[in-house]
Amino acid sequence: MKILISLSMMLLAVGCSDFDKFYREKKEASTHSGSGSMVIARVGPEEITKQELIKSLNHLPVKRRIFYLSSPERMEDYLQSYINQVLLYDEALKRRMDERKDIKENLENYKRRLLIQALAQEINNREFSKEEIETYYTKNADQFVQFKISQIFIKLQPEKGMGRDEARAKADNVMERINNGEEFEKLVSEFSDDPASKKKGGSFTYTGKGRLPVEVESEVFSLEEGEISNPIETESGFYIIRIVEAPNVLPLSQVENKIRLELGRKGFSEYINELRKEKKVEIFEDKLQ
After folding, report:
1. What DSSP string describes 116-142?
2. What contacts 24+ positions apart, CB below 8 Å, involve 37-45?
3. What is d(CA 81, CA 84) in angstroms, rounded to the nearest whole number?
4. Domain boundaries along the sequence of the chain
5. Phi, psi (deg, nearest 5) at residue 280
């Protein structure tokens, strides 16, 4: 109760007109010299300045920051929350809670995580030259191949009486109906055992090789747009594939950001491996048993 009374008294120190002025200047990103030192609240002898509140606000996630900046009333709500934090922090120090063993350990763990995160971001976010990006794009074109197919999948389910021979016979029957002119989408709905693609009429768009079983992918890259494969036998069942959009390599402009991320991950992995060599890391696997 005392905290709430003190909070109300401190908020009275910030007049409505002053707070509206603070909100307007924040929204307008005012750059006038000295404007950041405007005192907008007091907590006992401690002053809270406009600059201090903005700095705290900028540490919030983007969506929350936008929420508080959307009106003077919400900015005042944030100020109240900030004052609560000041009060509680001062009270914790008064009680010497910063000297507690568990608090010290938590602070040290947080410091460790923060430093690791900062270094990882610094390594991952380095700038890559145009040449590096183009070289990666050329050498890894398979990653950027995109194709669209429609598929009927007959799943092996021996426990339900659908062994390999039964599944093959079922796939052959479906193929015969396709050859007789039945709509592919209708047969997907009737026969396919892949629920994800079945919802989309059998259609799937894939980017990059290696997303499908080897036997299926080999067939996809040998067919022309509009063609339908014969039943393709795999370890898990039989596929019948129709090529909706033939494989093509996406242009560099569409995958440049993806390449930057991949180069960052690769650079980070190489950096970690170098550190491991430098520190001569040893793992005693027998002790993990």
Report:
1. HHHHHHHHHT----HHHHHHHHHHTGG
2. 40/14, 40/79, 41/10, 41/11, 41/13, 41/14, 41/79, 41/83, 42/10, 42/13, 43/10, 43/83, 43/86, 43/87, 43/90
3. 5
4. 2-99, 101-139+252-289, 144-249
5. 55, 60
| CATH number at 144-249 | 3.10.50.40
Hey, what are 53's tokens?
Answer: 């509140």
Q: Are 241 and 216 in contact (CB under 8 A)?
A: yes
- Structure tokens given for 184: 């592919």
Instruction: Decide if 75 contacts 26 (C-beta within 8 A).
Output: yes
* Per-residue pLDDT tens over the stretch 178-190: 999 999 999 999 9
Question: For 200-240, what is each residue's pLDDT tens digit?
Answer: 877 878 877 888 888 988 888 888 999 999 999 999 999 99
**Tokens 């609240």 belong to residue:** 41
Burial label for 79, CB within 10 Å (0-12, 13-18, 19+), is buried
Question: Cα separation of 220 and 148, whole Å?
Answer: 10
| Helices H / strands E in the chain, number of each | 12, 6
Whether pLDDT at 9 is above 60: no
Report the side by side order of strands in the sheet with 145-155.
203-207, 145-155, 237-249, 232-233
What is the distance between the alpha carbons of residues 42 and 13, in angstroms, rounded to a whole number? 7
Sign of the Cα torsion 201, 202, 208, 211 reads positive
- Encoding tokens for residue 119? 């270094």
Q: pTM of whole model > 0.90?
A: no
Q: What is the pLDDT of residue 80?
A: 94
Whole-angstrom distance, CA of residue 96 vs CA of residue 33 = 38
Query: 126-143: per-residue pLDDT in tens?
Result: 889 999 999 999 999 888
DSSP 289: -
Evaluate if residue 13 carries a pLDDT over 90: no
